[in-house]
Amino acid sequence: MFSSLRFRLPALFLAGIALTGVVSTLIAFGLFRNYTQSQARKELRREASGLTQLYAEQAVRSQEKGTRPPLFAASKLERASGNRLFFVGTPFFSGQSSGLHRLPQSALDFDAIKRGKTIEFEFTPPGEHRTFLAVAHPLRLDKNADPLGGLVVATPQAQLSDQAMRLVLRLAIALLVGLLVTAAFAWYLSGRITRPVRRLALAADEVAEGNYATEVPVVSGRDEIADLADSFSRMTERLAESEALERNFLMTVSHELRTPLTAIRGHVEALREGLAEDPEARNASLDLIAAESGRLERLVGDVLDLAKLDTRRFTVRHEEVDMARLVEQAYAAFGEEAKSRKIDYSHDLSAEPVIVTDGDRVLQIITNLLANAFRWTPNGGSVDLELSAENGKIHVAVADSGPGIGKEEQDRIFRPFWTHDGKGTGLGLAIARELALALGGTIALESEVGRGSRFELVLPTR
Description:
The protein contains 10 helices and 12 strands. The protein is of the alpha+beta class and 462 residues long.
């Protein structure tokens, strides 16, 4: 479980949020503590200044009129403000107590007080175990007189820390609630992500075992998982199609090899046993053996050419080629077939260019295109061969009056082993296109169902 993506996704997500929350809490704690201490110092300064002035005024009146200490006793002021009040220095009420707690001069920088400076300091009062943050303000009975001492207003440091800890506690509760909500959402979201991925993984295992008909899960939406499922579905379709094409190719090649071999073996046996004693019959048998041997050679040559092209181990010669002569040669090779099938067979050479290329391979491409045209053209149809040159390109077009090719099949026909009717090896057009690419050219196709097809070889002049 802990190694699964379902667990690791939310765990990593929560770890990032938790780390961010802890860092944010520490920063907030530090900032709030500094803020509370800064505000506490400001409040202590204001309170110390105000009380010092109030005590000084009452002390002066008490000395002038001989009255009792002011009614605002220290204990009442402490209860009202929540702070502790101290005095350090010479008593300022004549013969009377101010009610303020006394501090020894060693508890603070008394010389600074004597110089009239307000100071901040920390101390632990006698009999206490807590540390106080304090402000001491000089107390004068006369503006021009030296300070008698200092009035000290102090607040416990723990009180300030408690405020910060309450903030930390609230942030921790908020973080915990946020983590719980986020964990539930992350667990749900990771399930939404990993479930289709897991189903795709199971389907991939089936495909790896050769079961290309396995059902690929459909993933709704337009995200990356849906794109992955769609791509995987197309891949399985292509694999299933490739497997079917390979089976068809093996069966077709087996048939194509067996047929001429059977014919050759039969005529060889007849010659050995002297069944063809007549010179004319013997010559006919030898001609058939030669023709079937040539058929075998072409089939094996196609397979070898395709293997070389697939592995990029194909070499191209560079020589001057008379394209008009080469097209005439290709045209003449199908003349007898055109006559026997009453096909309207014509050629148009509107240019006589000489280019630098591999003549044998160009002839092979044109021958393959013509062979494909004659295969699909019905008896009494038409096949046209054209040669032209324009814009530094050579164009060789083969048009036929066959059944045409649908849009969905126009790319498939250039794949190895694929044929429209499941017959033949399906290598001719595949080899023609690969050869054209190797020579720096292309093969374009224009076709419409019921109106024939037009293949056009385009080659550079150099």
